[in-house]
User: Which sequence fits this backbone?
């Protein structure tokens, strides 16, 4: 008998969230199906709805309409489902008056599948003193502690809401390294929300671009990059844009496009699109404004 296929990590249909009867629309008609076993990068500008989507996935809030399932069940459906999801919120919250060891003891008390050996091993590897209070730890150390607690639950899904945004580059590198190790060791899926595209590129293999409360782009990162291109306009020529493409964004020097004619048949230079250009292109289209970083990239390419 063929093995049973795992349910999607996240599956949304018409998912909408509004705060208050006539309040701010945080998510609008989101449709999404993310396969299991992926490390998902969730990117978008402030106010796009990223934290709202993650809070819905953790069961911290409920949708106004539509549906969302996480690992095949409604978010936080019961205690068993809660144990399958580990969540690290913004600013990696820990209890300042608790020692590192007390955090691990609390985690063991609250989680039936708690992996004591994993927790103690990771605490030792990142150099945390079990007797030190969390309030005395550096930002990077607090992030490592929060990550260890989330992972020692042995969840099937780890969710991170901007966990490394406030860390210095060295601490952020250590955090991302630990995140990758935990995902591999646990065989878990992960959702990683960040403004830092370098972080997304380093650890994620699936991309979701969320802007203006809607999903603008979602899919396997390699497939998305392969399916887009950067067209560099011929110098001094007008009307150069070939037909047959979906134009994502343009500036005075070129365009980011999807699909279309074979590169050798085009009257312009074709270059691979970077992750930064891809994300900024979709963000620009959603906001209907030019992308200055993308323009700068085209200028560098023309030199």
Assistant:
């Amino acid at each position: 008998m063929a093995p049973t296929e795992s349910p999607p990590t996240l599956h949304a249909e018409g998912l909408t969230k509004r705060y208050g009867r006539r309040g701010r629309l945080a998510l609008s008609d989101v449709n999404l199906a993310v396969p299991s076993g992926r490390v998902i990068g969730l990117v978008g500008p402030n106010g796009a709805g990223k934290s709202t989507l993650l809070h819905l996935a953790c069961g911290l809030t409920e949708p106004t309409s539509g549906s969302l399932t996480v690992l095949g069940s409604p978010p936080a459906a019961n205690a068993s489902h809660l144990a399958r999801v580990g969540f690290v919120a913004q600013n990696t919250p820990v209890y300042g008056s608790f020692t590192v060891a007390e955090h691990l003891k609390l985690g063991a008390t609250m989680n039936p599948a708690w992996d004591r050996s994993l927790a103690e091993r990771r605490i030792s590897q990142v150099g945390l003193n079990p007797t030190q209070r969390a309030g005395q730890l550096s930002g990077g150390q607090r992030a490592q502690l929060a990550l260890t607690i989330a992972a020692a639950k042995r969840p099937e899904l780890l969710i991170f809401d901007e966990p490394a945004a406030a860390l210095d580059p060295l601490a952020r590198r250590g955090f991302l390294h630990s995140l990758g190790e935990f995902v591999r060791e646990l065989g878990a899926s992960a959702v990683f929300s960040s403004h830092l595209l370098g972080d997304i590129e380093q650890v994620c293999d699936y991309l979701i671009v969320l802007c203006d409360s809607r999903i603008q782009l979602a899919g396997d990162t390699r497939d998305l990059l392969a399916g887009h291109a950067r067209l560099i306009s011929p110098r001094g020529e007008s009307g150069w844009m070939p037909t047959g493409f979906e134009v994502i964004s343009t500036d005075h020097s070129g365009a980011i496009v999807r699909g279309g004619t074979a590169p050798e048949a085009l009257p312009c230079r074709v270059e691979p699109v970077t992750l930064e250009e891809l994300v900024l292109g979709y963000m620009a289209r959603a906001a209907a404004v030019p992308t200055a970083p993308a323009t700068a990239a085209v200028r560098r390419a023309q030199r």
User: Anything to note?
Assistant: Residues 169-186 form the longest helix (18 residues). The chain has two domains: 10-219, 227-302. Residues 100 and 129 are 7 Å apart (CA to CA). The chain has ten helices and 13 strands.
